[in-house]
Design brief:
Elements: E1 2-6, E2 9-13, H1 19-25, E3 49-52, E4 59-60, E5 71-73, H2 77-92, H3 108-115, E6 139-141, H4 151-159, E7 166-168, E8 175-177, H5 194-198, E9 204-206, H6 210-218, E10 223-228, H7 236-239, H8 249-259, E11 263-266, H9 267-288, E12 294-295, H10 300-309, H11 323-339, E13 346-352, H12 356-360, E14 376-379, H13 380-389, H14 411-414, H15 421-435, E15 453-460, E16 463-471, H16 473-484, E17 492-496, H17 514-529, H18 540-550, H19 556-561
Parallel strand pairs: 1-5, 10-11, 10-13, 12-17, 13-14, 16-17
Antiparallel strand pairs: 1-2, 3-4, 3-5, 6-9, 7-8, 15-16
Helix pairs in contact: 9-11, 9-15
The structure holds 2 iron/2 sulfur/5 carbonyl/2 water inorganic cluster and iron/sulfur cluster.
Residues 139, 155-156, 160, 162, 164-165, 189-195 line the site of iron/sulfur cluster.
Length: 568
């Protein structure tokens, strides 16, 4: 441990800590902007500068190591002036669109401008004039709002190891984006949205589809139904001002009903169905010498990443569509028939923790119902805005139930939202289907938690099944490289594009960080624990669906509606 003095206060920290960490530990606030804990630590913006006794210049506290006996001041007239000047310079090349900006109210630059009492900009000159990149259905890049903090670069290059975003040009002309200013659409981008979560301003954000949903809700000829992803019941509350990890399933259902949806259904229903299809696909490949390891297919960011970067593994990916898409295909066939509604009048909205889901639902092959299976996918941030627009007081809402039958689900489906959850759900079903025995312990602890790559093995009659789980594309890369080199061998692999799985998705509330991820994961396992049924194959609505419509897993109808293929 070392001891330093910050603002006349003695602070003890572990060796290797920075001045910023020491200050944070002592409860002393230092403003930051380019700094993003665990992700971007480079001292680029200089807003966190402090005075260190004996040093000739101001020191960026986020990158300067704390040292024994160091005497630091974080709050002097000179520092306040320096920080204000930095903000004024940043704002001198920033569009004044705060009122109409998607991040208004949740923008770090706006918050700092307010804190530093900036009422006018003393510097006037040339302003950047870039055309926004609206080329993908998921993410918009508005370079004019970029403050060159490089947080998105670190998220994309280090956290995800995809490497789409770079600094281009020099000096005033510098901009962050794909090389040569190409559009995201033409890049091997996963559309995971981790760069969006990292962005402190409105320079990177989801493509908003709220108005399209309002329009459908206002159309008397449309039967508008909504499905909610497993991970959002533990994060929508956060977007509505509650603590991270608040479980708000019942309130979320009530709020969606207040928005005017004709039916409030659950993607979890389709997650149970995915387990039935994917579990049987796994057993089929195992028995009949099919391509192994089988890899999960529900994360569209992971699928897109694989198509671009590891096409040699495409045959390994399960042919199962994601639960979002299985739900859509069934809504416009099975449900439409049951309700005697013309599928052309059914409008399916999904609420997802994800930006890649917007891309997934627009993929041309996702039309097996004869229509766009899912019409619009909204992020958690978007649906929270709809709740606010509708004047919904989330706190005082009663807890309501999902509608049947597409709203009935199990604990196995709930845990899809956390890394390892799809694998655990699959193992619960595969074990019981193969052995015919009741699984004594449903909790597969080895595949839980935030370790980058997790491994487990399960004994089935005649074979020990080896499984692995990776979350975040950097970890996926490590795992795939080990498979390629023959260093590792598995039978079944779960990969999710985002760190932590969907609870850390690019469409989740901002901030999403290690702490919020942990709280959401804990909540999701509590949801599972409290469910009456915790195995997908025991879901009565799924049993009925097979009896009435699909007949059997991997049957003709399933192939027609629930399975797909991938492209290089
Ligand atoms: Fe996910 Fe999935 S778990 S991909 O992370 O398989 O987005 O939550 O909805 O489709 O069910 C996301 C979450 C989600 C799908 C399911
Ligand atoms: Fe990189 Fe993901 Fe952003 Fe694409 S969406 S630029 S892959 S972080």
């Amino acid at each position: 441990m070392i001891t330093l003095t910050i603002n006349d206060k003695k602070v003890q920290v572990e060796e290797g800590s920075t001045i910023l960490e020491a200050a944070q530990k002592a409860g002393i606030y230092i403003p930051t902007l380019c700094y993003l804990e665990e992700i971007n630590i480079m001292g680029a913006c200089r807003l966190c500068v402090v005075e260190v006794e004996g040093a000739k210049t101001l020191q960026a506290s986020c990158v300067t190591p704390a040292a024994e006996g160091m005497v630091v001041r974080t709050n002097t007239p000179f520092l306040r002036k320096a920080r204000k000047a930095i903000l004024e310079l940043l704002l001198s090349d920033h569009p004044f669109e705060c009122l109409t900006c998607i991040r208004s109210g949740n923008c770090e630059l706006q918050k700092l401008a307010e804190e530093f009492n900036i009422r006018e900009i003393p510097y006037h000159g040339e302003k950047s004039d870039f055309k926004p990149d609206t080329s993908t259905p998921s993410i918009i890049r508005d370079t004019n709002k970029c403050i060159l903090c490089r947080r998105c670069i670190s998220a994309c290059s280090n956290v995800q190891r995809v490497g789409i975003l770079y600094p281009n040009e020099r000096g005033f002309k510098t901009f962050i984006g794909p090389p040569f200013g190409e559009n995201l659409k033409d890049m091997p981008c996963a559309l995971c949205g981790q760069c969006v979560l990292a962005c402190p301003t409105g320079a990177l954000h989801e493509k908003e589809d709220i108005d399209e949903v309002w329009k459908a809700l206002e159309d008397p000829n449309k039967h508008v139904i909504v499905q909610t992803a497993p991970a959002i019941r533990v994060s929508v509350g956060e977007a509505m001002g509650m603590d991270p990890g608040s479980i708000v399933t019942g309130k979320m259902v009530a709020a969606l009903r207040r928005l005017g949806f004709d039916r409030v259904f659950d993607t979890d229903f389709a997650a149970d169905l995915t387990i039935m299809e994917e579990g049987h696909e796994f057993l089929d490949r195992l028995k009949n010498g099919g391509k192994l390891p089988l890899m999960t297919s529900c994360s569209p960011g992971w699928v897109k990443f694989c198509e671009h970067h590891y096409p040699d593994f495409l045959e390994n990916i399960s042919t199962c569509k994601s639960p979002q898409q299985m739900f859509g295909a069934l809504a416009k066939t099975y449900y439409a028939n049951k309700m005697r509604i013309d599928p052309k009048n059914i409008f399916v909205v999904s609420i997802m923790p994800c930006t890649a889901k917007k891309f997934e639902c627009k993929r041309p092959e996702m039309t097996d119902s004869g229509y766009l299976d899912v019409d619009v996918s909204l992020t958690v941030r978007e649906v929270a805005k709809m709740f606010k627009q509708a004047g919904i007081n989330f706190d005082t809402l009663p807890e309501e139930e999902f509608d049947a039958p597409l709203g009935i689900s199990t604990g196995a489906a709930a845990i899809f939202g956390a890394t390892g959850g799809v694998m655990e759900a699959a193992l619960r079903t595969v074990y019981e289907v193969v052995t015919g025995e009741t699984l004594q312990n449903l909790d597969f602890e080895d595949v839980r938690g935030l370790k980058g790559v997790k491994e487990a093995s399960v004994n089935l009659p005649g074979i020990t099944v080896k499984v692995a789980v990776a979350h975040g594309l950097a970890n996926a890369r490590d795992l795939l490289d080990q498979l390629r080199s023959g260093e590792k061998e598995y039978h079944f692999i779960e990969i999710m594009a985002c760190p932590g799985g969907c609870i850390g998705g690019g469409g989740q509330p901002i901030p999403t960080n290690t702490e919020t991820r942990k709280r959401r994961i804990e909540a999701i396992y509590n949801v599972d624990k409290n469910m009456a049924i915790r195995k997908s194959h025991e879901n009565p609505a799924i049993k009925k669906l097979y009896k009435e419509f699909l007949i059997k897993p991997l049957g003709h109808k399933s192939h027609e509606l629930l399975h797909t293929e991938y492209y290089q």
